[in-house]
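From the shared-data thread, chain only:
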Amino acid sequence: GSAKGMNFYLHGKSTFVVGSSPHADIYLADPKLEKEHFKIEIDEESFILTDLSDGKSFVNGEVVDIYVLQEGDHIRVGSDILAFHFRTITEQSLPNILKDIERMKSQAFVDDGTVPTLRVLEGTNKNMIYPLHDKKTFTIGRASSNDIKIVDSKISRHHCKIEVEEGEYILFDMDSTNGVFIRGEKKDVHPLEDGDHIRIGFTVLEFRLPKKNHKTE
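Structure, as tokens:
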């Protein structure tokens, strides 16, 4: 399927949503999938799959609603088949795992210039691209519940948000500890313009509008 050869690691949070939305934790570019097709929740040492697609998730050939995953299970959604494996991280395997994670990051969203985006220019999430579409509000912060989660010790759990109002993208500080800066100036509210650089903590984000929205001279 669309994810052939890729490895997805279930670590760092307790719930992973799988689907065709670029906002999904595991993004599969398959038009047959729902935007949120199924989720996997980690409960102690159990990995629990819950269908979100109204009966279109299969494990080992059978339709499932809620299912506790076992070693070697095959999950079929659309044209993709995913094999579930427990994997012990060793000193020898860690470099390859980190390489796979970086590849997952780079392939999570392909920027074709058709939707507004935030690109990380500086910080731990450097080179990540986050699409800003399909919603009216996008929250940014350290907490896993945010639409855009950024690992940065100087960023608040819920640091700021971007709201879409009549085609404009407006940035709001959410009472963060260390503030939001645009071109070096602290801002509580700021209508974003194409190319704006947003500094939060040690992280710098670049806001880009779709290419068709760029002003031509």
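The chain has two domains: 1-108, 117-208.
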